Amino acid sequence: MKIKIVCVGKLKEKYLKDGIAEYIKRISRFAKVDIAELPDEKIPDNPSAAECKAVLNNEGEKIARHLEGYIIALCVEGKQFSSEELAEKISAIQLNGDSTITFVIGGSLGIDEKIKKSADLMLSFSKMTFPHQLMRLILTEQIYRAFKINANESYHK
Fold first, then answer.
1. Burial of 29: CB neighbours in 10 Å, binned 0-12, 13-18, 19+
2. DSSP 11
3. CB of 107 within 8 A of CB of 40?
4. How far apart are CA 55 and CA 40, in angstroms?
5. What does pTM read for this prediction?
6. Is 32 helix (H, G, I), strand (E, B) or coil?
7. Fewest beta carbons within 10 Å, which of 15, 29, 43, 112?
8. Contact 141, 43 (CB under 8 A)
9. pLDDT digits 0-9 by tens, 114-123
10. pLDDT at 157 over 90
11. Is residue 24 within 8 Å of residue 53, measured between CB atoms?
12. What is the largest CA-CA distance in the chain?
């Protein structure tokens, strides 16, 4: 199994890098993890709707080059799962024969509509908005939790 995380924007904070590295190390018992960190587009001050659309389109083109397997786009309008439901979904994807799951985390403006439409699943972790850097940490923790649930191993609740 391969887990791919395609994300827009660089991680700068050491504590986030350390946390993500720890969860990737833990996940490595269950799956190979690849992270494709894509540069974010410059957003002008007080951007117009057309400028926002252009930024999303440019980021979407970069994201599209890295998509493979079962695509899960993280977006606020997506479906919300419990940790157990996410574990069931990952298990079902594996049983269906997909050897790669690609999670997509957009930049500060979100994810381009073309990427959302091409995704197999739109997933929301909350109605709240999180910084994309923090979302990477939350996502890696939940992926690890899902693998632990699927392996019938205990994990802090």
1. exposed
2. -
3. yes
4. 9
5. 0.95
6. strand
7. 15
8. no
9. 999 999 999 9
10. no
11. no
12. 50
